[in-house]
Amino acid sequence: MTKSSVISGFYKLPPKERLAIIKDFAGLTDEEVGFLENTGSLPMDVADHMVENVIGVIPEPLGIGVNFQINGKDYLIPMATEEPSVIAAASYAAKMVRDGGGFHTSSTAPVMIGQIQVVSVAHAGYARTQVLDSKDEILKKANEQDPVLNSFGGGAKDLDARVIETSLGEMLIVHLYVDCRDAMGANAVNTMAEAVSPMIERITGGHVYLRIISNLAVKRMAKAWCTVPKESLGGEAVVDGVVYASAFAAADPYRAATHNKGAMNGIIAVVLATGNDHRAIEAGGHAFAAFNGAYTTFSKWTKNKNGDLEGEIELPMAVGLIGGAVKTHPIARIAMKILGVKSANEFAEVLAAVGLAQNLAALRALSSEGIQRGHMSLHARNIAITAGAKGELVDLVAERMVKERKVRVDRAKEVLDELAKKQ
Ligand code: NAD
Question: Does ligand 1 lie within 6 Å of residue 324's CB atom?
Fold first, then answer.
């Protein structure tokens, strides 16, 4: 039986009942369910092995994005975020996209770039030629560092070298292209870059300083696209609004930064839930958005001849199924199981689809009723809690503030006092 990610009324259920549905969908064990139920379930000894100077953990809410259909397959999307409305918005957008046949995706091979900075060469152009002539020898040395990666079909596959002008004169920058298979690959690439550096110094007669991965992972791209029927979006006027919003962002970096941040709201929530390196995704996405000089968007929306909305997103996506904290963090392991992806490529493509959904939800709201209506009704609960509301009072105070269009802590305190007097 094929599993559906459309779960009617999921948001209305209590967490325990939602968890029972996810257990069934993802085949979670009782132990895994126990980890999720125990909101303090990153044990101190695990945390202490993950980073330095540990004194505790900071839990974030973990929710599920529903309705996603990507290349004909249904996914439930684990999302960790402190921001209200992100998960609801992604689920809503995924539903609209589903009406148009779901998301379609593609990706390149999972190739990361390792940079080796060579200075003090007599003639940078000549040094470049020397490095290119020694390609086989350098790649062989790089591949000796990671037989495990080689056994999965990955490893250093190619290299290039560029001469760049800097404030300190010409530098030769060698790029090592490493297929990282199902790893994000930073450790693997850095190890290779360090290992080949003495050889590059010998070949060029220069001095190597930096040997490190580039987060501008333009060889590891993920793409997603979709069509949203105008009826699902709320009519052709809303289609026009989204298309105008897209053109605005493409032309204006002030708007592009927020347009792209909206897509990152979804992408980073999944990257965080799965224990991946979210700084790498942010850095790569934004650097790619400025790749041609001016900062612009990594997604765009147009209207097709039927008047429906078409969207696409393309950005670097350096994520892994193994390595880093992916396997050490107990919740990250479970999130990965819920997501059910089988390769880093499939994972990268799902992330692109989530980014496109999140972008769509924001643009639809912005170009119709405005973002605050949906946002404030969810945010109101945070304000109510800040004012001291507990239990069922949280929703009562939040609802009142939204109705009055006064979502403020001072008003929350007044409502809370009023309700307390009644009890
Ligand atoms: P890693 O070294 O923990 O794991 C990767 C290794 O796993 C591979 O080298 C390979 O030997 C092995 N492996 C086993 N099965 C594999 C498979 N199916 N496919 C590929 N490899 C397989 O981790 P990593 O992915 O090399 O590095 C990720 C970590 O590096 C993250 O924690 C990240 O935060 C950190 N980091 C990031 C940067 C950056 O600039 N983005 C810089 C330094 C470190």
Answer: yes
The CB of 154 under 6 Å from ligand 1? The reply is yes
Pocket probe for ligand 1: among 150, 180, 277, the residue whose CB has the most ligand atoms within 8 Å is 277
**Rounded Cα–Cα distance for residues 352 and 222 (Å):** 6
* Span from the CA of 180 to the centroid of ligand 1 (angstroms): 8
Q: What torsion do the CA atoms of 123, 129, 133, 136 make, to the nearest 10 degrees?
A: 90
423 C-alpha to center of ligand 1: Å? 57
83 is catalytic: yes
261: annotated active-site residue: yes
pLDDT on residue 216: 98
Over residues 398-414, mean pLDDT? 89
138 lines ligand 1 (CB under 6 A): no
Is 32 near ligand 1, meaning CB less than 6 Å away? Answer: no
Rounded average pLDDT over 189-194: 98
Residue nearest to atom 1 of ligand 1 (CA): 323
| 320 C-alpha to ligand 1 centroid (Å) | 8
pLDDT in tens, 367-395: 886 666 666 777 888 888 889 998 888 88
Ligand 1 proximity of 148 Cβ (cutoff 6 Å): yes
End-to-end Cα, the chain, rounded Å: 51
Q: How far is the CA of 343 from the centre of ligand 1 (A)?
A: 14
Find all residues with CB under 8 Å of 361, minimum gap 6, and list them: 89, 90, 92, 93, 262
Q: Please give the single-letter amino acid code of residue 387.
A: A
> Reduced to 3 states, what is the DSSP secondary structure of residue 35?
helix
Q: How far apart are CA 176 and CA 116, in angstroms?
A: 8
pLDDT at 121 over 60: yes
Q: Quick check: is 390 catalytic?
A: no
* pLDDT per position as a tens digit, 31-60: 999 988 887 778 888 889 988 988 888 889
Instruction: Please give the Cα distance from 178 to 192 (Å, whole number).
Output: 9
56-65 pLDDT, tens per residue? 888 899 999 9
Say what the pTM is. 0.90
Four-CA torsion 344, 349, 351, 357, nearest 10 degrees: -170
Least confident of 261-265, 282-286, 406-410: 406-410
Q: Is 278 a catalytic residue?
A: no
Sorting pLDDT into bands at 50, 70 and 90, what band is 403?
confident
Neighbours of 378 (CB within 10 A): 17
Look at residues 31, 10, 34 and name the one whose alpha carbon lies nearest to residue 21.
Answer: 10
